[in-house]
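Follow-up to my post from last week.
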Amino acid sequence: MRQSKLFPKTIKIAPKDATSASHKYLVQAGFVDMLQAGAYTYLPLAWRVITNINKIVREEMNAEGGQELLMPALQSRSIWDETGRWDGSLSDVMYQFKDASGKDLGLAATHEEVVYDLMRKFINSYKDLPLAVYQIQNKFRAELRPKGGLMRGREFMMKDLYSFHLTLEDLNGYYQKMIAAYLRVYGRCGLDAKVVEASGGVFTDNFSHEFQIVSDAGEDRILYCDGCDFAQNTEISKLKAGDKCPKCGLPIKEGKSIEVGNIFNFGEKYAKDMNGYVNDAQGNKQPIWMASYGIGISRLVATIVEKYHDEKGMIWPEAVAPFKIHLISIKKDEAAEKIYDQLVAAGVEVLFDDRDLSAGAKFADADLIGLPWRVVVSEKTGDQVEVKKRHQTESSLIALTELLDQLK
Amino acid sequence: MRQSKLFPKTIKIAPKDATSASHKYLVQAGFVDMLQAGAYTYLPLAWRVITNINKIVREEMNAEGGQELLMPALQSRSIWDETGRWDGSLSDVMYQFKDASGKDLGLAATHEEVVYDLMRKFINSYKDLPLAVYQIQNKFRAELRPKGGLMRGREFMMKDLYSFHLTLEDLNGYYQKMIAAYLRVYGRCGLDAKVVEASGGVFTDNFSHEFQIVSDAGEDRILYCDGCDFAQNTEISKLKAGDKCPKCGLPIKEGKSIEVGNIFNFGEKYAKDMNGYVNDAQGNKQPIWMASYGIGISRLVATIVEKYHDEKGMIWPEAVAPFKIHLISIKKDEAAEKIYDQLVAAGVEVLFDDRDLSAGAKFADADLIGLPWRVVVSEKTGDQVEVKKRHQTESSLIALTELLDQLK
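User reply:
Got it. Predicted complex:
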């Protein structure tokens, strides 16, 4: 894509209220724009990142048998009254209102009730189990204090998967598979996630598992061990920093972290609340067991920026970068046009800065936007190109064919 | 995909209130499920159709320079007060409510105000124009009488593109290009759309252009000519059936039709209402001209079914079908498993009916779901397969390699 056509241009001045690198850079580089507190437009560059993340998420959910669907965000009260969440734990975070006829409506903050209703309608036999369905969708939560940027919003993108089982044993096995799938998702996005024991919050009385990324920009605090996989949210932990790890005995650490996912083993709660039962092979009535698994897609975008940036801007991991290459022509000339055409023909995703600007302005934009590879064409590059990875300081002159080899 | 795992199974009995083929078959075949009047879950089979349609839509929008983004559905009143639509023409169709702090919020029924706000914020130079952005998103409309199925809902999927121009001339040129792009979209979905002059409705005082598919299941009535491209919505036409076509002189026809798209040339309306101006190359202040272009994605799904079905079920055009092939094994045997593996390895999208059911039950499901190719493996097919296209009555025995050739 030609940068002269890209909407919008980068902004000179960072937002005044930005307290985190992700908020600052995502706004300044033209990735997102705030419509109102907690509600952002994903502009084309952020949309490309989200598309890449969603592709990874879909691949890993599909690999565990997840079937994609899309449920309505607009929901009637009756379904939420069955579990008592309309007036209960969700009443503070759910947008609730009446339509013209006086009927109570709510905007989905989560989908357990709706998906369970679907299951009790369609699951008629033990042969229909196990089953996993998921969706990627904007969710709504009436946050009193939304955080700037994509960290905590009133409208945000989420992937939510729900799994259904004939036995607790089967549920527990799938729950472990999904933990592994989540770690693959974060790993492919360049993040090292910790699996953390946590409270079930408004969702369940049991412990849940959070996926946390250690970061000073986080709002959570976790206790974790560098020697093993022990990790607990401080909200529920009886330990403190320096205590011995209950798993391996090393002293545990405490740190701030960003929650990028949360999974809940509801067991037979929904079967009881919403009357979801099915006969097993022996003809005995069994509850349809459920667990739910969420990933905050838009928060993940911000988290990646928190982990990958420097004082000049963002540094996107290749798997999620909006484009692979930032091609910069120092002077408007034929050579750069030709290389752009060759890169596009080779199927490489390239942002071509074809604008009539100084080299300094172009380099500053490239550092801010943070594409993995910067490729410069100038009078002195001859029939080669000047290549630098975003995190490197030194560039090197190589032939285009060599660059294409390295990109593979 | 194995049909034994597909969620959900087909339903024996059609919904009682179904008055159209699309409503009946989409529910019965397990493509959609109603959560409440006007709000449907897109189940995995419908989601696959939608994914295919959206791919076509993205390709054609991108081909005309459209840049994809995603704007919030949750919007504050202030932006709508600028054009007077909060209390005006949109007040009846927009869900409006207050948050806990008493602030007025609305759910997006359309996005002209929000996108224009984005443009006046970011367009600083005539060099930033022309520009086109689009999104694919669930929209909300407080329909008093939603229609069964996907035809008219309270939550529905829409593609909306907005284009911005320095001059009316440039806008008019792009408007024509977008008409051509829309006709390509419908054509690739198997639909023959008519471009129909219509009222601007709640959107503009000017005429708009609708894209209509002639169908008895439609709620609109249009006058059209078989000899040329003349077409008008009866709402605005001064003609009647049998009158001479004003373009070519042939007698015009009247028929019911389904509106699958609508485009609006707003001219400088938004520039005036929302103060959107930019200097041209000569330094003269010019309005930022806007047009908007919508396609009802979920309605398109229903429309395709209205055009392509028979008394047994749906008949999906190849480009949008949820799977290309319905592979049916008459008896559970190795041969069918092997052919399934070969089709998957060849990259063909195949639904494999591996269930322990009678041939009759499997054929009935295949006719209902309506995949383009039915491929049967039985004791009598030997090392060949029995192939029939959904709309054909006679099948033929061919080798698998020949089938793969035909699929190309």
